[in-house]
Design a protein that fits this description.
single chain, 198 residues, mainly alpha
């Protein structure tokens, strides 16, 4: 489904204006990116993830398995923060899915995100949050990618009306697992809060 189709769905009780602001920020390059970069790492990785063949046997030209794994890690980090309080209801799931689809602007199909979220729910149920944070961090090698993981997770946490204490704790643990210091987490949260005041 195209991003335009996703926008026509009924939104949960979450503020749709806030969701739009978060989605726009997710699609933009972070403030620390090189000059001339327009898209975020999330959007760049989404292009490859969206090109993934459902049967995984014959991948189309332009498919980059590393970029697809990065996309999964970025989405999973945000998913783990969203699940921090152990309560991720249908409305939160719909808002989460809508934000990711909107930010990726049609590069990833709704069915792909729905399938990814189902996989993430199963993995979280089996492994628990600490193991999943470790698994996300293990796949991130570059500092700019680590900072993007933290930035996206901080932004998505805003969708539920701000970052709660338990979400902040998961963000701190995520930052630590990624090898980033507290200043990186604080910076990601500052950017996320600034979205609310735009």
């Amino acid at each position: 489904m195209a991003a335009g189709d996703a926008a026509s769905h009924t939104m949960p009780a979450t503020d749709s204006t806030l969701i739009g602001k978060v989605a726009r920020q997710l699609s933009r390059a972070p403030t620390y990116s090189e000059r001339g970069v327009k898209d975020s790492i999330l959007v760049a990785a989404a292009s490859s993830y969206g090109a993934q063949s459902p049967d995984d046997l014959t991948q189309p030209t332009g498919f980059d398995p590393e970029a697809a794994r990065l996309f999964e890690a970025i989405v999973e980090s945000a998913y783990l923060v969203a699940n921090a309080d152990g309560d991720f209801d249908a409305a939160e799931r719909q808002a989460f899915q809508h934000v990711v689809l909107s930010a990726c602007d049609g590069r990833v199909a709704e069915r792909q995100i729905a399938a990814l979220l189902a996989d993430l729910a199963e993995q979280l149920g089996e492994d628990g949050i600490d193991k999943r944070l470790t698994m996300v961090a293990r796949g991130i090698q570059r500092t700019d990618h680590a900072r993007e993981v933290l930035r996206v997770a901080s932004l998505v946490a805003q969708v539920s009306g701000g970052v709660s204490e338990v979400e902040r704790s998961v963000l701190d643990r995520l930052g630590g697992a990624l090898g980033l210091d507290g200043a990186a987490t604080a910076s990601a949260l500052d950017e996320a809060r600034s979205v609310l005041s735009e």
